[in-house]
Amino acid sequence: MNSNEEVLMLIYQIKDNLVWEVSDDQVVTILEKQDHWVQRFFRKIGLKIPMYKHVKLDGFGSFVFLQIDGKHSVEEIGRLLDEKYGEDAHPLYERLLLFLNYINATAEYIERIL
Fold first, then answer.
1. Count of CB atoms situated within 10 Å of the CB of 57
2. Is 11 helix (H, G, I), strand (E, B) or coil?
3. For residues 33 and 53, what is the distance between their CA atoms, to the nearest angstrom?
4. Is residue 113, in this structure, part of any structural domain at all?
5. Total domains, the chain
6. In a domain, 72, yes or no
7. How far apart, in whole angstroms, are the C-alpha atoms of residue 79 and residue 85?
8. Which of 20, 41, 68, 77 gives 20 to 30 Å between its CA and that of 48?
């Protein structure tokens, strides 16, 4: 199996400690807790710093995020994305892998399980 096939077989799941919500129109909002010592300090001296930062995903991101269930592979998510958005989602796997890499490695919303 070459590396492209291996990447398409990857499976992710949403991290257990992630707080998120879905609106009626299927838009996902991630609630990132703001609990750094600096934020806690400024709250103690009376500044109004929200406890959560709201990160609202766009339509593509929300759709992909809702497919991440520990069962769908990258290839299956790509097929579903193509069925829903067609040409608007292209270049399909380049965009999908870039998004998955970001929410896995940088934002740490998901984790690879296979």
1. 20
2. strand
3. 6
4. no
5. 1
6. yes
7. 10
8. 20
Summarize pLDDT for 17-73 with one digit per residue, the tens: 999 999 999 999 999 999 999 999 999 999 999 999 999 999 999 999 999 999 999
Q: Is residue 98 part of a domain?
A: yes
Write the DSSP string, 44-98: HTT----SEEEEE--HHHHHHHHH-SSS-BHHHHHHHHHHHHGGGG-SHHHHHHH
Separation of alpha carbons 44 and 50, rounded Å: 12
Question: Whole domain around residue 50: which residue ranges?
Answer: 3-107
Task: Decide: helix, strand or coil at residue 100.
Answer: helix
AA identity, residue 20:
W
Of 107, 106, 81, the C-alpha closest to 92 is 81
Classify residue 112: in a domain, yes or no. no
